[in-house]
Design goal:
It is a single chain. This protein is an alpha+beta fold. It folds into two domains: 2-82, Winged helix-like DNA-binding domain superfamily/Winged helix DNA-binding domain (Arc Repressor Mutant, subunit A); 94-219, Roll (CBS-domain), CATH 3.10.580. It is 45% helix and 18% strand. The protein has helices spanning 2-8, 21-33, 38-45, 49-61, 77-82, 84-91, 110-119, 140-147, 177-187, 213-233; strands at residues 9-12, 15-18, 65-68, 72-75, 103-105, 125-128, 134-138, 163-164, 191-196, 206-212. Strands 5-6-7-8 form a four-stranded mixed β-sheet. Strands 1-2 form a two-stranded antiparallel ribbon. The chain has a two-stranded antiparallel sheet with strand order 3-4. The radius of gyration is 23 Å and the shape is elongated. It starts with a helix and ends with a helix. Residues 92-154, 162-226 form the CBS domain. Keywords: CBS domain. InterPro entries: CBS_dom, CBS_dom_sf, Diverse_CBS-Domain, HTH_11, WH-like_DNA-bd_sf, WH_DNA-bd_sf.
């Protein structure tokens, strides 16, 4: 959802324009194949040329596309300026925005895990073994499922209820922030662990950080603020 919001809303001047999925497809096609004719775009999307007329006219009017007779469509100045925040998210690495993870030992009880969630104000706990290697995650949903109707659940170790690595979507420190957004959107998760595999084997990596939607939203707000200040200086 977060990725979809970023990709479907483009800031133009002081207004935010929401584009349709077909308009976004047209922008992507022009970005890859410019200059490209209306007929070629229609063929790529499997529709008739008249069907695209209103979409192309709107994109040209907004400055997202430019058109030259007998040449075709290419990206406009507005698209290039509005895509700068996305380019920055693509250029920034996860290590620049990751937060400090809340690690717990795999022997920790479910009772203590619940307390840790509240005291650390955490959405998810990262579970590590005796060698401090990442072995899984525990979410409030995991803890709720095990405690409902189970009187002895409080004493169960989190290793019995956690989602185990490698069955977890994760990031590497050198991944782009945009890649983190894509993974969150694709897998519908609110946060992702940042891991570094051991040289001797891929299992039980070291966890170095944590990226959440809150991290991303704060970063996007900072980028937007810097952009607005820059516009005021012009």
């Amino acid at each position: 959802m977060l990725y979809q919001i970023i990709m479907t809303h483009i800031k133009i001047g002081g207004s935010t324009i929401q584009l349709s999925s077909r308009q976004l497809e047209l922008l992507e096609l022009v970005k890859k194949h410019a200059p490209v004719t209306g007929e070629q775009l229609a063929e790529s999307l499997g529709v008739s040329r008249p069907t695209l007329r209103s979409d192309l006219s709107l994109l040209v009017m907004l400055g997202l596309l430019d058109a030259k007779p007998k040449v075709g469509y290419f990206l406009g100045n507005t698209y290039r300026s509005s895509s700068e925040p996305l380019q920055r998210l693509n250029s920034m690495q996860v290590r620049e925005v990751q937060g400090v993870p809340v690690n717990v030992p795999d022997s920790l009880s479910v009772h203590d895990a619940v307390i840790t969630l509240f005291t650390e104000n955490a959405d998810t706990l990262l579970v590590v073994n005796e060698q401090k290697r990442f072995v899984g995650i525990v979410t409030p949903k995991d803890l709720l499922k095990i405690t409902l109707g189970n009187a002895g659940a409080a004493a169960i170790p989190v290793s019995m209820v956690m989602t185990r690595y490698p069955n977890i979507v994760s990031l590497m420190p050198e991944d782009s922030v945009m890649e983190a957004i894509r993974k969150m959107s694709l897998h519908q998760v609110d946060c992702l662990p940042v891991v570094v595999p051991r040289e001797e084997q891929a299992l039980d990596p070291e966890v170095t950080g944590w990226v959440s939607k809150s991290n991303i939203i704060r970063l996007m707000a900072d980028i937007a603020t810097v952009g607005e200040l820059g516009e005021q200086d012009l």
